[in-house]
Design brief:
single chain, about 450 residues, alpha/beta, about 25% strand, binds zinc ion
Length: about 450
């Protein structure tokens, strides 16, 4: 253990068993404020028969409260209340309004007061600090500062004292130039983009593994935690890969992975409370070694638009065993999005889990796949079609398809139909990769 490496040792190394008790007073204050000032929660909790702070009680009774869904927030927006009725202060007291890209066309807004922004930066400092980012690092970021919450880590990099080299998203020439000319040692990017840059360098005869980069900080999608993808990235870049995860409506970089690389520690202690639930039934799942479920978040001290039991749709596996780094919070790895989960003959299947297993066959495969369901909706009949790209200059070996099919059947209990396609024929994105292609679904 090296306590000097922990950004907030008093908080991050405190026994985890004490956390809920420490958070209880803040939760009670927040619940009282929601009942007094949040039009959204006055209506929502009132409809559930909860009218007073005494009805809410403390954190140990939180599971009796209703969940908050993203769609409910969206539905509460009107021309008079464009952010939604969960916004508490007047807009004049809001210091920043981020927006999410929004799959429905209209952006969702994430408002923050000045103090909320300071809290987000404090959480994000712990998260990036866990990955070993420290003063003196030369860090290239590829996040657009623009409208998205991913802009907050840019403020965090200032707070950590790094030499920050922003190159923006999708500008591979500029990124590689920053590595070659400025000898950057740390790169923050999505795992699919990290993979793309590695392929881009191979095609141009650039030896990335011999370059100055020692650390990749990946975020934005689950791939960076999959063992085979991580191994490929670490070999291609000659660098350590750690990941971070947050959620726009709650906080950025809520989780950050330490140098032990055994999952992401919770960095939001004192600011956010989290629970684990079964996504189908909504019942709580006990937080113990190896447990899996969906993360649900509650703000403990958010001011602008506080949320209660917000369903993240992030499905994770949890580890609670002690970590040699000295941080005592549980660690998680994201398995996939609850929304992406398919059910094939009563078996839950995450496209990200399929990709992780297919990647075991690297370098015979490129690591890029697409699940192409035949039917609309999450229920699918076997065999589930999976398109697998072969690796660069690799043959179309029918035996490879059969090996992949067998591996998926043994590991996931799902029957698939594997189609091999040429290297480079599936789309790459510089931000999040889409693993499910619904174009063939009827
Ligand atoms: Zn650790």
């Amino acid at each position: 253990m090296n306590p000097a490496a922990i950004v907030d040792p008093e908080v991050e190394a405190r026994p985890w068993g004490e956390q809920q008790r420490a958070d209880d007073p803040a939760y009670r204050r927040q619940a009282a404020r929601l009942l007094a000032d949040s039009h959204f929660y006055k209506a929502k909790l009132g409809a559930a028969g909860i009218h007073t702070p005494a009805d809410v009680s403390g954190l140990d009774a939180i599971a009796q409260l209703p969940f908050t869904e993203k769609d409910e927030l969206r539905a509460s927006r009107t021309p008079d209340e464009p952010i939604g009725t969960h916004l508490i202060p007047p807009l004049s007291e809001i210091s920043r309004i981020f927006s999410t890209s929004g799959t429905t066309g209209t952006p969702s807004y994430v408002p923050l007061t000045r103090d909320d922004l300071a809290d987000w930066i404090a959480v994000s400092r712990r998260s990036y600090g866990a990955s070993g980012v420290t003063a003196g690092n030369r860090l290239v970021s590829t996040y657009g500062a623009g409208p998205f919450v991913a802009g907050v880590p840019l403020d965090t990099f200032n707070a950590l004292g790094v030499t920050h080299i922003p190159v923006g998203s999708g500008n591979t020439d500029r990124l590689v130039a920053a590595v070659q000319l400025l000898k950057a040692d740390t790169i923050a990017l999505t795992p699919s983009y990290a993979l793309h840059v590695a392929e881009w360098c191979v095609a141009r005869g650039i030896d990335l593994a011999a370059c100055s980069v020692q650390r990749l900080l990946v975020a934005g999608e689950p791939g960076g935690g999959e063992p085979a993808t991580r191994k490929r990235l670490e070999e291609a870049w000659g660098a350590d890969v750690t990941e971070a995860m947050g959620i726009g409506d709650i906080c950025v970089s809520l989780w950050g992975e330490c140098r032990e690389k055994q999952g992401m520690h919770f960095s939001g202690r004192g600011f956010v409370h989290f629970e684990l639930i079964d996504p189908q039934t909504g019942t709580p799942v006990e937080m113990k070694e190896g447990a899996t479920g969906e993360l649900v978040y509650t703000h403990l001290r958010h001011r602008a638009a506080p949320l209660l039991r917000f369903r993240s749709r992030d499905h994770v596996v949890v580890w609670t065993s002690p970590c040699p780094c000295g941080r005592t919070s549980p660690r998680v790895r994201c398995i996939g999005r609850t929304d992406d989960m398919l059910i094939v003959r009563a078996v839950n299947v995450f496209p990200t889990a399929i990709r992780a297993l297919v990647n075991e066959f690297s370098p015979a495969v490129s690591g890029v796949i697409a699940v192409r369901p035949r039917a609309k909706g999450f229920r699918q009949d076997p065999p589930l079609p999976v398109i697998v790209e072969v690796g660069e200059d690799q043959p179309f070996d029918p035996a490879l398809a059969e090996h992949i099919r067998t591996r998926l059947r043994d590991a996931l209990s799902v029957t698939t139909e594997i189609t091999l396609v040429a290297h480079g024929s599936l789309p790459r994105t510089s931000y999040k990769s889409h693993l499910v292609d619904w174009s063939q679904a009827v």
